[in-house]
User: Fold this.
Amino acid sequence: MSVMLVLIFFSISTALLFLIAFVWAVRNGQFEDDYTPSVRILLDDVASSIEPNPKITPNQTPSLTPESHASGQV
Amino acid sequence: MQADKFSYDNRIVRLFMIASVTFGVVGMLVGLLAAMQLYWPELNFGMPYTSFGRIRPLHTNAVIFAFIGNAMFMGIYYALPRLCKSPMFSPFLSRVNFWGWQLIILAAAITLPLGITTSKEYAELEWPIDIAIALIWVVFGINMIGTLVKRRERHIYVAIWFFIATWVTVAVLHIVNSFELPVSLFKSYSLYAGVQDALVQWWYGHNAVAFFLTTPFLGLMYYYLPKAAERPVYSYRLSILHFWTLIFLYIWAGPHHLLYSTLPDWAQSLGVVFSIMLIAPSWGGMVNGLLTLRGAWDKVQENPVLKFMVVAVTCYGMSTFEGPMLSLKNVNAIAHFSDWVVAHVHIGGLGWNGFMIFGMLYWLVPKLYGREIFSVKLANAHFWLGSLGIIFYAVPMYFAALVQGLMWKEFTPEGILKYPNFLETTLQIIPMYMLRSIGGALYLIGVFVMIYNLMKTAYAGKFIGEEYAEAPPLSPATHPEPGEHWHRRLFERRPFLLTIFATVAILIGGVVELVPTFLIESNVPTIASVKPYTPLELEGRDIYIREGCVGCHSQLVRPFRSETARYGEYSKSGEYVYDHPFLWGSKRTGPDLQRVGKKYPDSWHYRHMYEPGDMAPGSIMPAYSWLHENTLDLSDLKGKISAMRILGVPYPEGYEDQAEADLQTQANSITKNLKSEGVNTSSDKEIIALIAYLQRLGTDIKLKKTESTNN
Assistant:
């Protein structure tokens, strides 16, 4: 069953990789704020109206009708 | 600070979307055909290319890698740039990723019906395609990590962690499981043999489910569910916990696919323990998803996107509870090899993956085309068709599994098997197979309704190929502080590059050092009477692989009285040392074949393969009449012998030159034997090789006194 050594080696290596990533993430402060990121993703960074884009006219901007379904974020 | 202006590429999202839906229809149609063949074998149209053994892998590959895989790319290529506030790293690499992936799917769609397969489940594709998958996967990784490096948002949202885990782990799994020695362009042998091959395969198989069907879709859930509900995820903290616990536990659960096999007990137990532990993070994730909708269930009533996602997350919860239960040894004893496993994977596939994809599509298409969905009513109709489809699929399969699993194990008071004829247990569940295909058909009709709805939406709107956005650049936080060491910069500032380098280094190191040393030299036979296959048997085994017999017949007798009474002596790991690849199978639609050798006369096999119903009235096995006409192709025989020798099978030096003569001698003796039993055929037909292989199976350690039970 020497193949187990191979699998354990690869499994542990992968786990170590994730451990390094985890330690990095903690020390980088990735998990310090455990609320704002969940709200931030709800906001879209739609280009401001400084230079109106010819390709997007207001009524083509994706689904702004509130009572429709899913979308509706600004 | 001046904001950067940039745009998101929606065209690549649309490409993956079209591919996903198209291949979804194809994959489900093939699945429906396979399901119907189980009660109507003539539906293979008498052609090798459409017989069950060949289209089953076509179905699984199409739905996993083409339908779900393309949808995964679709979801990531939309969500990742928005989460990073940066366009994808390279539009060119995005296209390479797309077209490369479609070419791989095309190659699969051609090779699998032709019988070009490694026979390892969900890794059936032959070595040139395996290499292509690895390359395209690297392209995807570079594109994703490049985007992360260029990101304008310092925080890495939890969804992205799931995407990274998907990429890293699938790369490792695919490479380790695909070590194979090519014989020709379309034929290779697994580097591992027997029980070792089985362990690697199910380490891969389980984690393919974990990291191809689960983690990417959890990432997508953490993006699209809050977006659709317009509210943040219930607990962001829980989602982070969900991620880290899940990835550290998942990779150890693979051996639960091999309970009661010849795998060492401690490894089996390890798999069980980790499987049970997995309930915690999985249910944490499910609860997090469902609670996101707390106080907003009125939205679920109105919004088809949320309806689909709620059912998807619920199915995730059901599957991840059922999985650990199935890996308990006492449950597994009944459920393994039965239709329970089929039901289980379809709760996951149809419910979790399918409904997540439909939810994403109903959300994305209006976004991409700047229009509301054409018809909410039709979307609701799709929802109910799909949900009914899942129920009609799963419930009959559970019922079939319990009925058949218990029939297999039932003894009369006198102590003999109550249902010694395997076929009897199969015929009992035929009505369930019919109901199941109705479930599948309902689900597929729902998909057609969706396609109509989405196309109407698209035609009414105008495709927004580039979506313009702006975001402030990330302030450079990476100024080296005075006195900072170089390794701090390397390890703390460049985590993603580091991830890549580390993976590559690990893989190269592993390949070079470990694999040859451990695997080939350790394959010494532990049972003296176990001998390598003769050239004719080897060719017959390759026909067995080509026709996908392993899809319905296991070659593993578990140490239960009900199995030893039915099939014979239970399996020993020493019997499989020359099996490159292993052929244990995972489903018994027909009986186990580990001890079939010498149980029936040659002519029985000849006639049975020509028309199974003649030998076993009512049999649902398809006929393999082409084997009786095709001439056995010996062009690779020399290559096969020497490849096997490299893998450690003790054929003597120079045996290549003698192999063909030996093969002819054995073929002639089988032909002669057939003639004495009233069958006239010539010795160069494929069926002769297959008979040679079947008659050899399990005879190396078979007791001299043959068991009197028949199956």
About this structure: Chain A touches chain B through 53 residues (CB under 8 Å). The CA atoms of residues 24 and 30 of chain A lie 9 Å apart.
